[in-house]
Amino acid sequence: MATVTELKAVLKDTLEKKGVLGHLKARIRAEIFNALDDDHEPRPSLSHENLLINELIREYLEFNKYKYTASVLMAESGQPIVPLDRQFLIRELNAFEESKDNSM
């Protein structure tokens, strides 16, 4: 019969292989940041450039399924919760969109 220590090791290994442990750690980090975030301390206003940069970072994080990292970015940066319109980003960055896969 396996010991408690062996069972813990197997459980940890299984959760790591499935990627669950990483998600749990990221979720805990995000919740800690949210709990420590002082809503009474005013944030500096976002410049137009930082707003666009943060939006590009958010899009990258969400595309790669880094949703907890994106939630920490939103909490710390003061970026609007509602994403900016993609067409607005394209115009502001003088970019073009590939029609077949909606990538910039």
From TrEMBL:
Bilayer-spanning residue ranges: none
SMART domains: LisH (SM00667)
Organism superkingdom: Eukaryota
Family according to the record: Belongs to the CEP43 family.
Record keywords: Cell projection, Cilium biogenesis/degradation, Cytoplasm, Cytoskeleton
InterPro entries: FOP_dimerisation-dom_N, LisH
Location relative to the cell: Cytoplasm, Cytoskeleton, Cilium basal body; Cytoplasm, Cytoskeleton, Microtubule organizing center, Centrosome, Centriolar satellite; Cytoplasm, Cytoskeleton, Microtubule organizing center, Centrosome, Centriole; Cytoplasmic granule
PROSITE patterns named in the record: LISH
Family annotation (Pfam families): FOP_dimer
Role: Involved in the biogenesis of cilia. Required for the recruitment of PLK1 to centrosomes and S phase progression.
Record protein name field: Centrosomal protein 20
Organism of provenance: Cricetulus griseus
GO cellular component terms given for this protein: centriolar satellite; centriole; ciliary basal body; motile cilium
The keyword Cytoplasm belongs to this UniProt entry's keyword annotation: yes
FGFR1 oncogene partner (FOP) N-terminal dimerisation domain ranges (all copies): 49-100
